[in-house]
Amino acid sequence: MAKPRGSDKLQGYIAEMKPTACEDWSEMSVDPVREPNMVVPHLKDGQDDQFQVTAVSEVGPAALSTATRPVIAEKPPGLLLHYQLLFACSVARSQSTNASIKY
Q1: Tally of CB atoms within 10 A around 44
Q2: Which of 45, 48, 51 is nearest to 19 (CA)?
Q3: What is the pLDDT of residues 61-71, one digit of tens each?
Q4: Residues 81, 84, 85, 89: what is their CA dihedral angle, to the nearest 10 degrees?
Q5: Going by C-beta distance under 8 Å and a sequence separation of 6 or more, which residues neighbour residue 42?
Q6: Distance between CA atoms of 10 and 13, rounded to whole angstroms?
């Protein structure tokens, strides 16, 4: 499969996650998401996870980004935990993936 180039039309992003202690990655959505961020449901409070992402164009996915450092989801007292993954990725080449917690 040909790898996307910078001039290929971006269709979206596919993000993957895994608990740091595991080796297997899981895709977080069936279809590419259009925005370079997404809310990650069902995280376990206190568990550390890692994330990686790839840009997808008309010709297919680019190379996966470098995995994030382990990120620990911690629920503040009295608040629901909403975890939003923000990532920087391009069709030309996957760059870094950054994860941050948004309440």
Answers
A1: 12
A2: 48
A3: 888 888 888 88
A4: 180
A5: none
A6: 8
Model pTM greater than 0.85? no
Residue 4 resides in a domain: no
| Amino acid making up residue 24 | D
Containing domain of residue 30, as a range?
Answer: 10-101
**Residue 45 in tokens:** 């409070």
Residue 2 included in any domain: no
* Chain centroid offset of residue 4 CA: 18
Coil, helix or strand at residue 82: coil
What residues contact residue 15 under an 8 Å CB cut-off, 6+ apart? 27, 28, 29, 33, 38, 51, 52, 53, 85, 87, 97
